[in-house]
Automatic annotation (TrEMBL):
Residue ranges crossing the lipid bilayer per the database entry: 12-33
Record's keyword annotation contains Cell membrane: no
Source organism superkingdom: Bacteria
Keywords for this protein: Coiled coil, Membrane, Transmembrane, Transmembrane helix
Originating species: Candidatus Viridilinea halotolerans
Domain Band: 36-209
Gene3D superfamilies: Band 7 domain
Pfam families: Band_7
InterPro entries referenced in this protein's UniProt entry, alphabetically: Band_7, Band_7/SPFH_dom_sf
Protein name in the entry: SPFH domain-containing protein
């Protein structure tokens, strides 16, 4: 009986111990589930792991899970590109008032150090960051407007936007950080959306535009007149060149004919000096050949050939012998006698 009682008592203790152990495990699991931290960080976001008020680390996009972390907090911060639109009434350097709308695109710096410092100074709330940034943008807009006339702002919006950007990324003084460095952001773009001017200035702009159109029209008309004059001058030069070429050709042809005539006369004179009878006989043969061919020949009047034809055409049958004129020998210059 004694041994059986002890066995029964030992079995009861084991069951109690097993139940107690299971209860402890359940309590641990319950505590783990109740104190665990789970967070999903999407693309374009970063998670700042804060344990007991201190930044422990930066969670990249993905799943964060940690059991038994009752004092750990995951702060989600937006690192996507954001835009701020500012509308303000400003005065130009020539004392003209106008309304201007600008847009500034920015994003938080995603580096761990920048996120740590930004969390400590600004926090993770986008609204608070926007308030700080709007103040800097307004100051930059006022400063830039005083350096441009209204005409320059209207004609060079890109230059005006670049000047605003320069104010935002440049240190305002020695020992001071630039506005974008103070806010731990990266400036993406600055754009001028709209510019509104008063009615009086708008009327002046319209008048200026009309004058510019008139000036442009007059300039085009002058260019057309100048082009027409140049065309007329070119045509006149071409016509003069054609006439000059024609006159030159005629002159060269006349010189060539004169040269050939002189050569023919020189040859005739040489043949006549060598054998006058043969020369006259050959001339008559050529005349007979010309008449027998039945062709029309145009002969220079006053030459030996025309005299021959006139004699051959006399009705009384009389004929006068043709005596060619002997070529005159060139004169020999006589030297002067001292």
């Amino acid at each position: 009986m004694t041994n059986q009682g002890k066995a029964t008592s030992g079995g009861g203790n084991m069951r109690i111990g097993g139940v107690f152990g299971a209860l402890v495990v359940l309590i641990i699991i319950a505590v783990g589930f109740s104190t665990m931290k789970f967070a999903q960080v999407n693309e374009g976001e970063r998670g700042i792991i804060v344990t007991q008020g201190r930044v422990e680390g930066i969670q990249e996009p993905g799943i964060f899970f940690r059991p038994f972390a009752p004092f750990t907090v995951i702060e989600i911060v937006n690192v996507r590109r954001q835009s701020r639109t500012i509308e303000q009434n400003v005065a130009s350097s020539d004392k003209q008032l106008y309304d201007i709308d600008i847009q500034v695109d920015f994003s938080r710096l995603p580096t761990p150090d920048a996120l740590r410092d930004s969390y400590g100074e600004i926090g993770v709330d986008d609204a608070q960051l926007n308030n700080f940034l709007d103040g800097f943008i307004n100051d930059a807009l006022k400063s830039a407007s005083t350096q441009f006339t209204l005409d320059q702002v209207l004609s060079d919006r890109g230059g005006f936007a670049d000047r605003i950007r320069q104010f935002l990324v440049t240190s305002p003084g020695q020992g001071l950080d630039a506005p974008v460095e103070q806010l731990f952001v990266r400036l993406e773009a600055v754009k001028v959306l709209d510019i509104s001017v008063g009615e009086q200035y708008a009327a002046l702009l319209a008048e200026k535009a009309n004058l510019e159109v008139q000036i442009e029209t007059e300039q085009k008309r002058r260019e057309q007149i100048q082009a027409q004059q140049e065309n007329n001058l070119f045509q006149a030069e071409q016509e003069a060149q054609v006439l000059l070429t024609r006159e030159r050709g005629q002159t060269e042809a006349a010189l060539e004919a004169s040269s050939r005539d002189a050569q023919v006369r020189a040859i005739q004179g040489r043949y006549w000096r060598e054998n006058p009878e043969l020369f006259e006989l050959r001339k008559r043969e050529l005349m007979v050949e010309m008449l027998n061919n039945g062709n029309m020949w145009f002969i220079d009047p006053g030459t030996d050939v025309t005299l021959l034809l006139n004699q051959m055409g006399n009705t009384d049958g009389s004929s006068t012998p043709i005596v060619p004129v002997q070529p005159v020998a060139p004169s020999v210059p006589v030297p002067d006698v001292p």
